[in-house]
Amino acid sequence: MRGYIPGRLVGRSSLVATARYTWPIWVWLNGALEAATGNVFGEHLDDFKPSLLRFSSAIGIESIRTPDSAIEVLVGVGTETFEHGGQADSVRVLVGTNHGF
Amino acid sequence: MASEHRHTKATRSAAAILATCALGCTSQSGVARPFPLRAPLTRDTDLQSVDIACRKEPTKKDPHHVSCAPAMYVSPLAWDGLDNSIFRPLARVFAVAKSRESLNANSLDEVADSSWFTNRLGARPVSVEELKLGACERAQFIDGDHAADGSWVVDQGKEDGSTPGFRVNIPGKGKYLLKADDKTAPERTTAASVIGAAAYNAVGFFTSCEQVVYFKPSVLKLTPGLHSEDNSGAVKAFDEKALARVLASSTKRGERVRMQASAWLPGRLIGPFRYLTTRADDPNDVIRHQDRRELRGGRLLAAWLDHFDAREENTMDVWFADKKEQPESSPGQVRHYYLDTSDCLGSEWAWNGISRRLGYSYLLDWGDISLAFVQLGIPLRTWDRIERTPGEERFGYFNIRDFVADSWKNEYPNPAFTDMTERDGAWMARKLARVTHEMVLALADMGDFEDPVSSAFLARTLQGRLDKILERYLTRLSPVADVHVVGTDRLCATDLLEARGTRVPESFHDSARLLTTTLALPVDRKGKGQMCMSLPHVQADGGLPDDAKERYVRVAIGDGVARGLLIVHLYDLGPSRGYRLVGLERPEP
User: How close A10 gets to chain B, by Cα (Å)?
Assistant: First the structure.
């Protein structure tokens, strides 16, 4: 969930649904738009409730050639849980390389 | 349909009259005459020799060397691209820049012959033979078939640029740079060099003498101990192996190797000309290059041929000293050349993504990138759907269908091309309107393709792209050219739209008026674009001075197809001496 900085959400398990759209904007660059909902929970999603999910969205550009470690410039926003009103409480500006999930 | 036609005609006539009135009112309100009674400038003073201050320029051979020629300008490969792709666009964001017309158009909306340009097409008849000769003199053509073994002395290697090659010195002929074909597009590179140079030359630019040559490798004799520099700047030995490598990469026809031969330019080479500012050490160079009409209008010529590589590195300034035997002496003059058009006609880069964009988007196109980002990639752009023509892949993405004359782009921004105005474009279109179909066929034939189908494809594509340019740039501003006075009172001209066959004769609905009186003048259209009208005299012989304001007459001519009018400025010197043409204007509609 690109709207949160690494370490912002910590738990024993996690559930995330992500919709991601990329489109070519230059020979070596894609635009990227991502919307995700999810959160971290206790072991085996113990305390999972739909109202505890958060929403994250991000938009930016990324290099094309290396999907596993693309160079990215993204701006993301993450929200509180829906139970707490789902208001934006996190803004993330990412300039660098994403590696892994 | 008929009523719609009448309506359109009536609307056009009304528009013409409105424009006429506007101009007439301006005249009556006492605006100064824009054109004095004198002949147009047809020869620029930059063709006169100038003195350059001598300076010490030590060389390895001569530590006390003195040069009286302009200094050598070196254009680094990456700098021009970076400057025009990144720094200049950034600077323009913060600049208070306004678009303005070119500064070297003369009173007849043309350019004078100069150290940049010699009026050919449109100024006088250019035959197919002259077109095919290009910048060559007949004595400069070389015949590889009848050359003796070892008679072409290789005295320099060339491993930089897009294609490798070498220089040969041919006794009795001089020096030629021989360049190989691009292996991925057999014959296209060499053909493009010859065709491009011929087209540039016919229009009026200075180019090198280019030809396609065939020869047996045995005619070459390699000078030992040669070195050459590659694109990275590394110096390598240019030995038998390197020579064999170049020959192996060239197209073959039987035992013979096919290469492009560029005759070495005469004079002292002083490096490329820039497409902006002036050369500080040339007193003749007083107009900023981006304000020169021929350089701006060159964008349409480049668009026609898809010469996306029209950048400063493919140009050359040459110092011609008055004393030829002392090439670095002063006085002398600089002449400006276009070089190396081998990237015309569908050249490709190693990356297909780049190749698809050539002509349609800059290598680094901030506008297109931003637009694509905002549009989420939903609308397909030309480079998303463009395809090579099956069977003619050597011409890459060179086609008619996707070509849009006014949105064609160079590889990276060219300052002169960027500043091209409608008038600059229309000026070049009037030049290109003189390229006949016979000339297009001749250009394609100059490529000397082994497969006649390729020649036919090339001719078809050149013709189609040319038609698109003319359709766009002859229908906005007035396409009426070749204006002249016959006898004392017949004003005659050529409507290039009809002469060219861009529109059928029935399309034209001529109108002509004397602006000071709003008197309508009957126009006599004789076919093939020839049109004449009789001018009533407004002043008698004698009496007033020749340049009296009472003798000043303006005539507005419209053809009912192009939206713009032609405003002809004349002085009426009376029935005996007749009208004197002094100026032409093509105002935007």
Answer: 33
